[in-house]
Write a structure and sequence with these properties.
Blueprint: H1 7-48, H2 51-57, H3 72-90, H4 94-106, E1 115-120, E2 128-137, E3 141-144, E4 147-150, H5 156-159, H6 164-204, E5 207-210, E6 213-216, H7 217-247, E7 250-253, E8 258-261, H8 285-301
Antiparallel strand pairs: 1-2, 2-3, 3-4, 5-6, 7-8
């Protein structure tokens, strides 16, 4: 046979249920006031830190901060086009052809009958210039005026004007050196100009640099602005919360370290609150649950409940000054217990 729960068990369950109901009522009441708190906070934050004031405090932003006018890929193409333009203006690709023409002119083959100047070592290690009309050219000698000059005495660079194989070597060497120099200068100029052009193009199209990357300026502005407002939100929330709750009749319970409705705390009135009579409060969850619990107990123990009790009080009327229920004396003769006797709560059968 199943044991019926004791009255103490029922009472504990009822107490836990009522505590949960009260907590739920408090949370619901607090939740209904959150809208007013948030609305007040938005007004305060709009006054304390409007977008214009935030922009004034951060020089990198200039109002209005508009969305990007072009996608990143488009901006990168703009940068490349502008960079190519300034490179071609400063170091045009046509310079490569100019180098070739310059080499061929610098080391051209001399012709008989033209007036030339060469350097040759005739008497001593230092070469001397010889100027005159070129009359003859051979593999081993040349004749300038009435002087016959051995090819071996002519400096190597000037031999290029008379010997084709020597000329080819000097032309190739000149083109290589000059081209490398041109490319180094062009690359250095590009390296200098790229960040300047990139910064200009990105900013003109609504981007900002951060952490080595470019981001939409509007996105960064909104994120920074929202971060600032979150800090101010945390700073002003306690004040606005207190103002709204106190206006609605709440007070801060230092002992419980929480806000408590004045009507739930014996009629306490917050500082500055009007003491005018309030309209009757709606029934609490505890009051609404009382007849339900009474009906449960009566269904288990009968209409008089578990144990005898003085007339005139309900089952759940349990003031602290009520005398405890007296158990029947041990020597009382055994008899059928009256309806609702507490002895049947401890029946072991």
């Amino acid at each position: 046979m199943l044991r019926r729960p004791s009255f103490l068990t029922i009472l504990m369950c009822w107490a836990l249920t009522m505590m949960a109901a009260l907590a739920s009522e408090r949370e619901a009441a607090m939740e209904s006031l959150k809208y007013d708190i948030e609305r007040n906070l938005i007004g305060v934050l709009n006054q304390v830190m409007p977008p214009a004031k935030f922009a004034e405090q951060h020089e990198e932003y200039t109002l209005p901060v508009l969305p990007p006018t072009a996608a990143l890929e488009e901006v990168e193409q703009m940068i490349q086009d502008e960079l190519q333009r300034v490179l071609d203006e400063k170091y045009p690709e046509s310079r490569r052809a100019e180098i070739v023409n310059q080499a061929e002119e610098l080391f051209r083959l001399y012709k008989k009958g033209e007036r030339v100047t060469i350097r040759a070592r005739k008497q001593g290690p230092e070469p001397k210039e010889i100027t005159g009309t070129l009359y003859a050219i051979s593999r081993n000698n040349i004749r300038i005026g009435d002087q016959i000059i051995p090819m071996a005495d002519i400096v190597s660079q000037d031999q290029a004007h008379f010997l084709r194989d020597v000329q080819d070597g000097y032309i190739k060497r000149f083109i290589k050196v000059q081209t490398q120099q041109f490319e180094r200068q062009r690359a250095r100029f590009e390296e200098e100009q790229r960040p300047l052009i990139s910064g200009l193009m990105y900013k003109q199209n609504g981007y900002m640099a951060r952490d080595g990357q470019w981001h939409p300026a509007r996105t960064l502005f909104l994120a920074d602005y929202e971060r600032q407002r979150e800090e101010l939100y945390k700073q002003y929330y306690p004040k606005e919360e207190a103002e709204v709750l106190q206006t609605d009749g709440w007070y801060y319970d230092e002992g419980k370290t929480e806000w408590t409705k004045a009507d739930h705390a014996g009629g306490a009135v917050a500082a500055g609150e009007s003491s005018a009579p309030r309209p009757p409060a709606p029934k609490s969850s505890m009051e609404e649950a009382r007849p339900i619990l009474t009906e449960i107990v009566q269904s288990l123990y009968g209409t008089e409940g578990p144990g005898s009790k003085p007339a005139g009080g309900g089952l759940l009327d349990l003031p602290s000054d009520r005398a405890p229920v007296q158990e029947p004396p041990a020597e009382a003769p055994a008899a059928a217990p009256p309806a609702g006797d507490v002895s049947d709560l401890y029946d072991e059968d």
